[in-house]
Amino acid sequence: MHPFAYTRATDAGQAVAQVTVDPHASFLAGGTTQLDLMKDGVLRPERLIDITRLPLGGVTHDEAAIRVGALTTMEELAADTVVRERLPFVREALLLGASVQLRNMATIGGNLLQRARCRYFRDPTVSACNKRDPGTGCAAIEGIQRMHAVLGTSEHCIALHASDVAVPLTALGAVVHVQGGHGTRSIPLTEFYLKPGDTPHVENVLRHGELITSVEIPLLPGGARSHYLKVRDRASYEFALASAGVALVIENGVIRQARVALGGVGTVPWRAREAEEVLRGARAASDVFRAAAQVALAGARPLPGTAFKVELAKRTLVRTLETVAGEPS
Known about the structure:
Layout lengths: L4 E4 L3 H9 L4 E4 L5 H6 L7 E4 L8 E3 L3 E5 L4 H6 L1 H6 L1 H10 L2 H4 L4 H5 L53 H7 L2 E6 L2 E6 H4 L18 E8 L6 E7 L10 E10 L2 E10 L6 E2 L1 H7 L6 H11 L11 H18 L4
Parallel strand pairs: 1-3, 2-3
Antiparallel strand pairs: 4-5, 5-8, 6-7, 6-8, 9-10, 10-11, 11-12
């Protein structure tokens, strides 16, 4: 591992200031992905600012939303009573996202910032990767593509966004609150992530030194039903081949409200707004669900190794919608 200096921050302002002035510094929280990447030589920070003792944990709520401190662990959030009762598909995504050991270490802020699981990104010794080393190429485009994206890709990168919980949070319109050298700002999660385009190394809109302090998650309305379905190669801890997070409000057999997002198929957590438009005002029926799935994947750009994901994602979304609506599969 590349040598680095270590500092434990005593308050958020101090942590932000230390990272802002040093282009080679990074924050350290749970570190469940970060330390692996440092060991592999993908990340080479010269200074780590430990933020784990900062008062950025815990969950509060009001009638409209919950506010989750960035250092709240995945396990803590999954155990919250309001999440269990009012945001069940968020809880499902958290529990499916990692083993118990990791959920007790990994933070919500860190989960949203986790790096690509692309094998080429994570192997700096042999692989070209525009995300890791801009301008070197994308080995995945001519390589093994099974765990890559079909939505939001570019000729420079097809790496998949791997977070499970980011999928229902994107569907809900969660907001990320950050603190930086120039003050605070609030960023909708749908605007937080950046598609690769010709700058795959720029993954989100955070400026250097900005720290996620909390995530605001709107609560589902009373009577809403939701589900997160994750399709993977094995039932034990594994990343999604395709996933769907769905929340519906159904009255007298008609869908009044719909929120839909996809995972396992996009370079960012994918809000399927076109599918939501198909669903709103329509009957809660399988033919409508299939039409919604068709438009959700209409923009897919598969390669030979990812072509199967288009149909798999459609079926995943249809099954999730049928589960939420109580329709037979």
